[in-house]
Specification:
This protein is mostly beta strands. Strands 1, 2, 4, 5, 7, 9, 11, 12, 15, 18 and 21 form an 11-stranded parallel beta sheet that branches.
Amino acid sequence: VTTNVVLTANLICTETDGIIVGADSIKIDLNGHTITGPDVTPDDATTPAVKDSSKVGIMVPNHNNVQIVDGTIQGFQAGVLCTGCQNLEISEITSKDNQIGIFSTGASVIKTKLSTIMNNQIGFAGHSTQQSEIPNNIVFNNDLAGITLVNSDNARISLNSITESQNGIYVDNQSNDNNVNFNNVHLN
């Protein structure tokens, strides 16, 4: 997409990526709707979906000043993937049943707030990402980790509830100057 988008119905993407951002300074408003990928078992299926899709719910490749708001993204390799972008804001999103709920790589100034990130392998993964802000989210029941930072600097992780994952918050030794404060991290 290259202009602002407001969904008027759910998107079911059994063999494709969901939405690919193709321009700077746009807003993707899911308007309370759901983008469903190939890794979700349909209600009428007799066998569960295999969680090995390479598809992405919303992809932001090298575009800046993008907002993603108000809906659910489920059943993808990454619910949201931002790579090489700047100034991405994710707000009021439920990212669930993905391999990675929100994945940022080679990006900067990424803000994820007021969202629910659940039932993924990893909730939020920042790799080589600068200046992430992760405030006021509910992050729970992610298999491997709630929030991970790898080779990422100057993140602020605050006021989150991070529960029932193998690791609550993981920051590797190549990450620097990160601020982790006032989070409720338990049962990990």
